[in-house]
Amino acid sequence: MDRDAFWALIEECRRRFRGGDERLAWLCGELARRPLEEIVRFQVCLDRVAQDASTEDLWAAAARIFGGRCSDDGFCYFGLWMVGLGREAFERALADPDALADAPEVQRLAGRPRDEWNDDWPEWELLDYVAMEAYERAAGGAEDGAESCEDAFDDAVEARRLNDEGGRDPADGRGEVGGGAGAALGLPRLSRLFPLPARA
């Protein structure tokens, strides 16, 4: 599975379903019907794409949407949520984080109290586990228990990364950006959609 095939799966999932749980169930089923190596490659592609989104400017955009700050974990899950926006929106946001203001999913959040975002909350942590679940299902479980199946998946993902990257793990850079201090700078449209609360 290359990036084009990865994005084709994400786009098909997006076309079929709106809700995150439905998308995950469909993705898991689709991946579980494929060879184990292809499931591993899906995870490697996801890790690379998520790493692409790990930039200071996108952290600033996330912080603006979240009201002025974004935690390390929140930013990681925000990047996974951006994958769910589809390839075009994702790549536009990489080039110009303020372009997130054009995404319908972002526009739905604007003007609403954050405690009412519920299923629209811009994080998708569980996307990071769908390939592992599909791998376990495709492998028929593990004779020695789920833990050894997870270990086999992790080992296969690591081996594929090292093979593809000549020893460099593209996930190594996760968490190296610092977060969101300049959230208003260079983000005029997001700043209008998500004004920061006035200080007392």
UniProtKB/TrEMBL annotation:
Looking up Pfam families in the UniProt record yields:
DUF4240
* Compositionally biased region (Basic and acidic residues): 159-175
Q: Enumerate the residue ranges of region (Disordered).
A: 159-184
InterPro entries the record matches: DUF4240
Identify the residues that the record assigns to the DUF4240 domain, covering every copy. Answer: 1-137
Recorded protein name is: DUF4240 domain-containing protein
Organism for this UniProt entry: Streptomyces fildesensis
Source lineage: Bacteria, Bacillati, Actinomycetota, Actinomycetes, Kitasatosporales
